[in-house]
């Protein structure tokens, strides 16, 4: 056999071996993506979309920051504005887990695929309201008394199954700082989450006078009930705001936090344990019980709240500008006509390409933020 033939045989063998290795790796990648899109271990959640079309510099960062946001149809503009503000204020790799109901998915997709949002990396997860059966008391006089997506935060490990840590945010928020700083919030050993406490928050110092019990446990729980008293939680304990928090999902799973939250939801249905003059969302009381003296704190400037109430008008422009995160919790939302500093929120709002969502502004004018 000539030397030339030997070289040809070796070359053919090398090429064949390379193709076999390439084929094997391709199959492995294909299986990985399939698991990414439809994890069979998810109960009550169905991942509907995975969009990996982010810039190369975004995809190959060493660590992604998972941010979970709920997206309800009537507040979808809020979700869009949160994502836009986070994306444009960080150089870190962020992946958004957008939790919504099935009938909102098409509207959400069309919005996300438009304009400056098309490079955002995200997953859409369909939330099954049946998860809440027997856990939430429904008022027959109020058709919309239960908003399922507000409970999505209770199921973080299901929503972000492969992450060790995640950030949860409400949809009435604008982020002005680098989300990496919030993500790097140190959590004490054994703590599954870090919240911003109401009494000690920077924003509370501005408006706490005359606030009554809305910053204490007694404003959320009925201390006349024996089951609550038996927990030996001080009624004067400072509450915290669950609209923004950082979660250690490893601790969350080890401590069965979701199970504990569901337990107290069921008990409330049976025994009405929440305060009748509930100071905030019905998601807050079970979180206060489960995390009583068992949570870390986030920097108060990462949850400057009450912009959705009349108290927000007391903030100076300098204070608002310095805030890392603005939160319009309360009755007045920034897409409505009476919220404080709505102009700052509107800078991050992207008009709805379908025209379904419109901003309501003063003097009865409906604007679509041209």
TrEMBL record:
It is found in: Membrane. One of its GO terms (cellular component) is Golgi apparatus. One of its GO terms (molecular function) is UDP-glycosyltransferase activity. Its main location: membrane. Keywords: Glycoprotein, Glycosyltransferase, Membrane, Signal-anchor, Transferase, Transmembrane, Transmembrane helix. The keyword Transmembrane helix applies. The keyword Ion transport does not apply. InterPro entries: Glyco_trans_8, Glycosyltrans_8_dom-fam, Nucleotide-diphossugar_trans. PANTHER family: GLYCOSYLTRANSFERASE 8 DOMAIN-CONTAINING PROTEIN, GLYCOSYLTRANSFERASE 8 DOMAIN-CONTAINING PROTEIN 1. Belongs to the glycosyltransferase 8 family. This is Glycosyltransferase 8 domain-containing protein 1. It comes from Sarcophilus harrisii. The gene is GLT8D1.
């Amino acid at each position: 056999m000539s030397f030339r033939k030997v070289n040809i045989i070796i070359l053919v063998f090398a090429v064949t071996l390379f193709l076999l290795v390439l084929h094997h790796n391709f199959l492995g990648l294909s299986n990985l993506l399939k698991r990414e899109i439809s994890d069979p271990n998810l109960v009550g959640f169905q991942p509907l979309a995975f969009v990996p079309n982010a810039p190369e510099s975004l995809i190959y960062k060493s660590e992604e920051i998972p941010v979970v946001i709920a997206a309800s149809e009537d507040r979808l503009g809020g979700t869009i504005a949160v994502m836009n503000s986070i994306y444009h204020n960080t150089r870190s790799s962020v992946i958004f887990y957008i939790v919504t109901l099935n009938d909102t998915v098409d509207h959400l997709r069309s919005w996300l695929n438009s304009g400056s949002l098309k490079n955002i990396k995200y997953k859409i997860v369909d939330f099954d309201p049946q998860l809440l059966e027997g856990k939430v008391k429904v008022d027959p006089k109020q058709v919309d008394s239960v908003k399922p997506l507000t409970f999505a935060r209770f199921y973080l490990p299901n929503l972000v199954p492969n992450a060790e840590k995640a950030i949860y945010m409400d949809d009435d928020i604008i982020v002005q700082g680098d989300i990496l700083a919030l993500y790097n919030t140190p959590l004490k050993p054994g703590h599954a989450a870090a919240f911003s406490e109401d009494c000690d928050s920077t924003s509370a110092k501005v408006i706490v006078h005359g606030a009554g019990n809305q910053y204490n446990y007694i404003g959320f729980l009925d201390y006349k009930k024996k089951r609550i008293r038996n927990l030996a939680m001080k009624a004067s304990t400072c509450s915290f705001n669950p609209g923004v928090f950082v979660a250690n999902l490893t601790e969350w799973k080890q401590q069965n936090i979701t199970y504990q939250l569901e337990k107290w939801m069921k008990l409330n249905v049976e025994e009405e344990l929440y305060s009748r003059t509930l100071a905030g969302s019905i998601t807050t009381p079970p979180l206060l019980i489960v995390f009583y003296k068992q949570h870390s704190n986030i920097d108060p400037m990462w949850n400057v709240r009450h912009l959705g109430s009349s108290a927000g008008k007391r903030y100076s422009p300098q204070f608002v500008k310095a805030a890392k995160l603005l939160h319009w919790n309360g009755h007045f939302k920034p897409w409505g006509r009476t919220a404080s500093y709505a102009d700052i929120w509107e800078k991050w709002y992207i008009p709805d390409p379908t025209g379904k969502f419109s901003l309501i502004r003063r003097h009865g004018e409906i604007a679509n933020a041209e």
